[in-house]
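Continuing from the previous page...

OK, I double-checked the sequence for non-specific serine/threonine protein kinase against my notes and this is the correct one:
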Amino acid sequence: MVRFSRLYIRQMSRNVVAIKRISKKALCKRAQDNLVDEIGILKELQHRNIARMTEFSWDSDYVYIFMEYLGGGDLSSFLKSKRSLPERTIRYFLQQLAFALHYLYERNIVHMDIKPQNILLTTSVPPVLKLADFGFAKSLEKPVKMDEIRGSLLYMAPEIYKFGVYEKACDLWSVGVIFFECLFGKAPFASATVEELKAKLLDDSPIKIPSRPVFGKDCIDLVSKLLKRKLSERIHHEQFFVHPFIDLAHAPCPQSIDKAINHIVIADDLFSAGDLVDAYFNYKEGLIHLVSALQIELDHWRKQIIRAKLSQYIKVAEDLNRHLDDIEVVGSSHSSHRHSGKSNAAPSVLSKGATLPAAKPPKRSNPISTLAKEAISSTDKPEQVQPSTDLHSTSLGAVVTPISSISSVPSLHDPLDARKQEAKAPKHQSFTSSTSSSVWRQIRRARLLMAWFSSPTGANRNDSVPSASSRTPDSTRMSDGSASLSETEFTSQPAVKTAYEYAIKRLDSLRDISSEGEAGLSETIEDLRRYYALLHNNEYKAAMDYLQCNFGSWLGFLKGLKDLELQKTLRSELNQALTVAEKLKATLKAKGEITPLPEEEANEQSCLIS
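Thanks. Re-ran it with the corrected sequence; updated structure tokens here:
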């Protein structure tokens, strides 16, 4: 064994591990309890973004904890070498930290000592971030008060130092401090002395966020919400995971390519059935996940394929976008002749009531042009600061036709009815046919993955992007879309909830705590759950129609509520539903040309790490 500070590195037959050695004599009763808790928690944690314990042992003098060895150093050293980071790099790191926090949150585990020194990096490019050192971690289902201070003062939440109150939100404060440090080069409570630091923790004045035009609105909004001194004002975990700057459901992860394929297959079916609106949104989702897959793909050959598929999708996107636009224009023209000026275009998503302000739609832009160009074709420099672009929260500007059937894309002048006649299955299927359709989609997803990533021959491997027809399937590379990632990396990152699933969870909680005397509340909640369920099941057009039909009755019920607290909560939920619908509506109306993308580029690491 080679000694490395207080750690040891042991070379075994196939891997290298870091060994944390703890002296038994130096442990007081409380420290012993903390050590037992740490080992107990680490035994249960299996996640790509959490440093993994491989085993533990002890002898008469020491306890040994064997951890996976990470050679990229910690985030503290990385920050010192860079001083401050570009926004896209910060977002990349923060999304990975959010994956770890989501995993802990789902298991009611609070870390209590999140700081740059406890965030380790791998040596890969881009690096994988891993949360480490669970010595202060504890399982908490509700806030508790302790007679001890856990954590580091510089990253400690004010309520811990002032009142000894520990709850899940204390980890989010620590994330906010790290976020602030990444943005501005120092922590918000950076002090020359410990006494000065303690005084800042006790102070009640708001944290001042420096104004920097290079950082986007979503970026500044999130750091501001994380660094709220009052627990009641601080963003909570579920809001953090779905915040536009994090958008965890679309963040780069080993499953990104599978998510992309899934939406593409669904969109193919919808497109064949003539359901262009739902097909549009599923292609949009597929493109988002393709960009995410490109960001973390390590294999150069696979990156070429993903890059080519993105370019191909973006090319055909303009055609279908114009096709949808032509349909809307023709429909509006016919309607104006038949109904004396009344438009036959998509109806307004909502009826605006005086007591419930409608959410403003986002500005129409072309994020595929911006983000895909950055992800695929830009030569990124580590020190260059580039504004973040969120493909999910802004409008798409285009839609895509099926890659598997590009030759069958209708021309701009083909009638929509002709495409609808090609549908092979009814829109509303029985349970048996739906199950059969689901199985068939799984088969098609596997086939599409095989068509994309079958291993070519040695000669073809050096080509820019070999065609699917020129390759023979290779089972060693074709089991999933993450062949360049280790099996552990792929299987140790569970799926995260979408914003729609969190909304359904909130509505269930509202139903549980609501007064039984409020007639109609359960029905309204069930209606809203149905709306989000449609969105979650990729039935976007049906969801918007459902909202249009029912919103008036929901608003009427809201006005009649006598419980003011309940009225406030339900109003918030209705506003959330409107915001989602308005974003979908704005996306459908978005226009814009898509910039052609070059086939290759030497460096396409979009997280700006080199």
